[in-house]
Give the backbone structure.
Amino acid sequence: MATATQVELTEDQLTLIAKALADPRRYEILKKISAQTCCTPCSSMRDCFDIAPATLSHHMKELETAGLIHSEKEGKFVNYKPRPEVLRAYLTRLKSDLA
Amino acid sequence: MATATQVELTEDQLTLIAKALADPRRYEILKKISAQTCCTPCSSMRDCFDIAPATLSHHMKELETAGLIHSEKEGKFVNYKPRPEVLRAYLTRLKSDLA
DNA sequence: TCGATATTTCGACAACCATCGAATTGATGT
DNA sequence: ACATCAATTCGATGGTTGTCGAAATATCGA
């Protein structure tokens, strides 16, 4: 059975997530990763977003630090997966705090 | 019957809301306003948050510009009300974009 | 009108952040 | 070992933003 793990967010994480979502470019990146059913390679993002490698790397780190995505090295490449539990926890928290 | 008005968010509003939520102090302020069943006077916030008047005024403007609250002058005072439709629209949008 | 109080605006400052070029690290194939 | 390619780190730069003191604006009561 699918374990419906309830993720608990610290105050810091709450802020990190909000900040991660607050940059339009980062939002679009996360949107793309979330739309993918499987992993998203880093290089595929570079084609989409017309962005400098350094900038992309920076944004990916922010998203990962916030806990919104997970990265996995595959040889020379890096693949990204969304972490829906964390987003769900964020939505739940907003609803509970600000409903 | 309660009109379930569906609020549509522009890209700019989306960013404004995310930014508004990304500052911890502002988040706490909004939390307090949302918890209130009725209006929240500006002065009552000053007691709670140990904040300079100028800073508070700045944050309130940000929250209002984002559309998350509504302000009303009452003589010398200002009262604030949450705008749950806007928050709801934001949650809906996040869910639809990033689910 | 005058003084007190509530809130906003202005101006400044420091910290933060998005951006990118250049240099670096790390893996792959030859 | 070497060249190549993917991705990260470093360093710098310009723009944004949270903060607050001081001044301005607005309202009220005396």
In short: The beta strands of chain B are 40-41, 69-74, 77-82. The interface with chain A takes residues 11, 14-15, 18-19, 21-24, 27, 30-31, 34, 82, 84, 87, 90-91, 94-95, 97-99 of chain B (CB under 8 Å).
